[in-house]
Amino acid sequence: MKGLSAFNKLVYALNLVFVILLLIACTVPYLSVKFLPVLSFLSLGVPVLVGVNVLFFIYWALRVKRQSLPSLFVLVLGYFVLGTFVKMNSSNDQFQTDDLKIMSYNVESFNEQGWKERKNIFNAVRDFVQAEQPDIVCFQEVSIGMKKEFLDYPYHYLKKISGGEKVHLGVFSKYPIVAAKTVTFPNSINNGSYVDIAYHKDTLRVFNVHMQSLGITPGTGVLGSHSSKRLYKRVVRAFKKQEEQAEMIRRLIDDSPYKTMLCGDFNNTQFSKAYHLLKGNMQDSFIEAGSGYGRTFEFFNVPLRIDFIMADSAFEVRSHKHYDYRYSDHYPIMASFRLKE
């Protein structure tokens, strides 16, 4: 740091801290949460770490200083290791008639408990889905009272789990559902499911998952009523459960005899261990065909992408769209696919 003013020495020292944090974040998807739980928190802050390093790089580059190199190095490394969370390509959200369209939407129980001031959410969500006309709809957090008549779709899977406080899932399809199963996550209110769908001359297996919540949803009062130590332990437990649940779903995907798709609320970002396990070699529809930031959830006004649609290599990803349709704490997403020849 020879030749730098005292102020710039301080700036550079702070710069190196953020370089190291982003460098550590690059390891998170490849390390078990059990190894060093505190590292998992970095997966939630990668966009911030990237943004700060970009600012540091610009600061030093404008001064033509070699101090710009550490941030440049970790930004390039992060791009290749973690991937991008902003897609600069032109919008590809037009859906063709012949493509298979699948929607994923956490509907927050349709405001069944009256947490929001909005009324008639049940009807509003139904009208939205009917207008968009996806071929397959995967809902998370459906209300216990949801019935097959909710959508004018000929096929559905709405398994009611008796006892406990399980959060329910729902799948509606325009194509025949020939088999279906609920995947129960132990010691969790969350769960997953899959449906086997007869699509033209093929059978597709579509997984619908709702991964362990971190339990710190804004507006629930949790943050204000718990000590920092208790909150830390709570979130670490959730990270560990997410990893265990992701391993369960990954084994089922690997054992699938059919072409496979996966969608749902992962309750974590693309920089997490859970996402890394779930994705495997599958294609993330946003990465392949999305545009912009792709946020599906806001945590204290910080946009995050925690809802995903994926497909294995048998599919061509044709388009991806995220909606500004706020009748839940999540935003819906839809993607379209075409089977490769």
TrEMBL record:
Keyword Magnesium: yes
Cofactor(s) it depends on: Mg(2+); Mn(2+)
All copies of domain Endonuclease/exonuclease/phosphatase, residue ranges: 103-330
GO MF entries: endonuclease activity
SUPFAM superfamilies in the cross-refs: DNase I-like
PROSITE patterns assigned: PROKAR_LIPOPROTEIN (PS51257)
Alphabetized UniProt keyword annotations: DNA damage, DNA repair, Endonuclease, Hydrolase, Magnesium, Membrane, Metal-binding, Nuclease, Transmembrane, Transmembrane helix
InterPro entries linked to this entry: Endo/exonu/phosph_ase_sf, Endo/exonuclease/phosphatase, TDP2-like
Domain of life the protein comes from: Bacteria
Keyword presence, Transmembrane: yes
Segments traversing the membrane: 12-32, 38-62, 69-86
Stored PANTHER family: TRAF AND TNF RECEPTOR-ASSOCIATED PROTEIN, TYROSYL-DNA PHOSPHODIESTERASE 2
Protein's recorded name: Endonuclease/exonuclease/phosphatase family protein
